[in-house]
């Protein structure tokens, strides 16, 4: 019942928004009007100073973070909104929009949009494991998007917008399985798939930090207390 109601509310509230809102670099996305998200929102704030001053790779060592488990990959609809919220987590160095899970090397946005490459819109998160755990980052991912929607996210319908976690280790897989179990125990019919991490292809420059650069707020992505502990 929770999943059907939440999905219905999300879909109805977003019908007035442009379809395929990630389809161009200049589209005007509106804030979500999802009643469930509004009534249970958690820290739905504007971009923080840290997010606006996003570190470059020169300020951290990606290889070192990857060796220590400090990289994560999530797909949850339009990558603009997922990136926007995850980069606000204290301990996160960088979040990049890109593509993962397909069968074409170095896909363009057009390749993904037309379903020719098989990729999902995905974000890569670099974080400091000594400051924030993978569980905290993954939990936030489940809070900012609807993990029960099986055909996309909000008004963005299509295979490139499916909900998925690409795990980089067995430890990450176990954490995600535990989070999904917690949601299911609370009545959510989780549609999120768990897949092995593959090559991450960074998206075009105009997709990066989209909401910060355009001074806008995400549409149909909003923090919701799905775990009942916030």
Explain what you see.
This protein is an alpha+beta fold and 230 residues long. The protein has a single domain, classed as Peptide Methionine Sulfoxide Reductase, Chain A. It contains 9 helices and 8 strands. The chain has helices at 2-14, 35-39, 49-52, 62-67, 79-86, 109-113, 134-144, 170-185, 210-214; strands spanning 71-76, 92-100, 120-127, 152-153, 156-157, 163-167, 193-196, 201-202. The strands form 2 sheets. The chain has a 6-stranded mixed beta sheet with strand order 7-6-1-3-2-8. It has a two-stranded antiparallel ribbon with strand order 4-5. It is globular and about 40 Å long. It starts with a helix and ends in a 16-residue tail after the last helix. Residues 3-21 and 23-52 have low confidence and may be disordered.
Calculate the mean pLDDT score and round it.
81
Number of domains: 1
Counting H and I runs of at least 4 residues, what is the number of helices? 9
Strand content: 15-25%
Q: Tell me the strand order in the biggest sheet.
A: 7-6-1-3-2-8
Question: How is the topology of this model organized?
Answer:
Blueprint: H1 2-14, H2 35-39, H3 49-52, H4 62-67, E1 71-76, H5 79-86, E2 92-100, H6 109-113, E3 120-127, H7 134-144, E4 152-153, E5 156-157, E6 163-167, H8 170-185, E7 193-196, E8 201-202, H9 210-214
Parallel strand pairs: 6-7
Antiparallel strand pairs: 1-3, 1-6, 2-3, 2-8, 4-5
